Amino acid sequence: MSNRDNIEKNTEHLAKRFAHLDHIGLIGLPSIDKVTIILEMTDPVWAVHSIQLLLLHSEHPIRIIALPGSLEFPSIQQYFAKEDPIEFWPYEAGIDRVNQAFLTIETPFVVLMEDRIMVTPRWLSSLIWPCLDEEHVMIVSPMSPTEQFDGKLDLWFQSHVDLVSYAEEHNPRNQGLWRQVTMFTGSCLLFRRELLDVVGGFDPRLRSRELKVADWCLRARMITRQLALCEDVYVQALHSLQPRRGEKIISDEWDVFCSKWGMEREAYPLKSISELDISKCSIQPFISIHHEPLFITVFLVVSEVLDTTFEPEYSTQIEQTYSRIQWVGILIGEHQELPCNEHRIWGSLDALIKVREVEEWHEALEAAFMLAKGEVIIFMFATRAYESDYVTRVVDFMYRESADVVVNTGNDTPNLEAQVHIPKEPLPVPLSLTAHRRIQEAGSYVRSLEEYYFIPRASLRAVYWTKGTEDE
């Protein structure tokens, strides 16, 4: 586009803005009651700095919903005053926290951003203007280092003062300049609240943020809504030295995306998305925001082959913090058992299966699977001690890693740097440390004299984590 064309386009936008302000009796900023900012937090230091800048540089009244990125995310509430417009939400395993926040939106405009974004003065008004210039504009992005195609601008500054100085020079020079684009992937987006009514929220089958945002943008374009790139706004982004969970597009997630949009696999996924012809796509653009956390079935196994005896402390197996659990007890072998209503562990179960011969344990599993209602099966054995948040962490790990099978391999306390190992070939793993989705023929179950084992099917995504239990 030539400079003359830019000037003509800019003049057209500014004329529309003046007419809008004249119509409502204002000369200045657009009249917006409040803007909701959904902040996805991954690093406590980044989050504190990002929120401080939002409070400092947002000229409109704002409501900040701060969403922790993991169970281990520390509290940062103490760094802010009680009167600050911030809601710190607790983490909830097995559910998309952004979709949860979407349910509470009442303001006309919403910003979705990550905590690595640093804003500058007048950033918010500049992002709102394209929506007032053109009624079909539904999603707006600034220039930033986190965009992959249109809008990618990666600058370096020695301090935030230098960033502000750049914005003070850059923004007025390009005031009013924006253009329609086909795709966003970045970490800062403004959108109209009404978009949630026509396309809903993020697709819960996708985990990486890039694919979730790309899918959302494609669905918006399917209903003839526009994406606007603001060339008069630049936001800086901090970068981690190590890739964070959710940033890398995993192979099987890309398969889901390609299947959904009728695409063939390519070596460079994002390029394929940007070239997608949505006129040939036949999917339904709307995805409901209402999603309950995963429902889990826990198989609690007591087996004579493992020399298990009834002890009162075994009742702690069912004292888990995760609330959506169906408990199925599996009693294998000859036991001097107590009636169900006289023993705490059995009286709290939803179902109990008993077989007298150890050789019949496969039949016991088959019967248990017929009773299972959960989306995920977790095996817990009475010979192991599990922390009260064990099920919560399994669910969280399976959800974040988009795994079909989760295997607990260590005794370390989990942290944000927990290692994930994906074997090239399926390996026998202890059944007592295994969870898998309720999939037909998820794998095979075998037994030795010391342990029950599970061998995942080769086509499933099996991940190994370092969250441990302690053997009794």
UniProtKB/TrEMBL annotation:
Top-rank lineage group of the source organism: Bacteria
InterPro entries: Nucleotide-diphossugar_trans (IPR029044)
SUPFAM superfamilies in alphabetical order: Nucleotide-diphospho-sugar transferases (SSF53448)
Protein name: Glycosyltransferase 2-like domain-containing protein
Species of the source: Paenibacillus antarcticus
Taxon lineage: Bacteria, Bacillati, Bacillota, Bacilli, Bacillales
